Amino acid sequence: MASRSFRRFVFLAVVFFFVVGLYFVDQRPVPSSNVATSLHDIVMGPPLQMPESESRNDVPECAILTPQKGFVDLSGLSESAEDGKAVAWPVRAPGLAHNYSIGICSSPLKKSLVESVSVRDGVDASHMGAFYVDPSGEYVSMGQVSSRPEYHGHRLTLTYENGSFCNTVQQTNGEKMRQKTILTFMCDHQMMGRAHITHLASAEDCTHVFEVRSHFACATAAKADNLAAVWIFLLIFLAALMVFFSGEVLYRHLKRKEVVV
Fold first, then answer.
1. What's the number of CA atoms in the CB half-sphere (13 Å) around residue 107?
2. In this predicted model, what pLDDT tens digit does every residue of 28-86 receive, in sequence order?
3. How does it sit in the membrane (predicted)?
4. In Å, what is the CA distance from 174 to each residue of 46, 160, 165, 167, 225?
5. What residue spans define the domains of the chain?
6. β-pairing, 180-187 with 196-203?
7. Is 178 buried (19+), middle (13-18) or exposed (0-12) by CB count in 10 A?
């Protein structure tokens, strides 16, 4: 009876160590992406300045470290998992004449069409991050592609600038403005597909804002944090093994003493 009780105690101790280990691993900070930021702040506000220690050189393209030390990698929305080709996301805007084609960190235009299409104002077709085709069949660049996401407030964004000229002019110098696209990303763990893109607004048909809902926009632990969590779990596992085997040795030692007595 003593043997069974002792083994039960050791088993419960091992389970306890595992539960504690899983708890500490699960408590790593994962930031929320649901804090609202107004469209005005996204369009007009400066990007959030990250600490110098979090250099872009340490982060892959199409990825970013969050202000809470998490990690977001949008590259899964940039290329097709099957063939590695760039993905074009079609977006329809109700009430507007345009059907947009959006790329995420890559151009949505097929490489086979780069040399043959006519882009308004002579913009480089190979670097278009987003575009639409006007009634005359001419392509309108909505901004040059970028692979560097930024935070505006608590909202993750990706901005394409220097597209084709708009019909509006800047009030400061009277120069024509250029097409600009802002992609705002929302974490959605329930999204069945890779992403869903919605047109939010187009200011004077010049600055276009879209919302991208995807599980790829959800923050995970940075690679360094993942490695630290693995080490913590291994140490707790080794401690549990030590409890188990030392308890077994102690039990046998006490059993021998009982036999001698």
1. 15
2. 544 443 434 555 555 555 555 555 445 556 789 999 998 877 899 999 998 754 565 77
3. Single-pass type I membrane protein
4. 22, 22, 13, 12, 50
5. 63-221
6. unpaired
7. buried
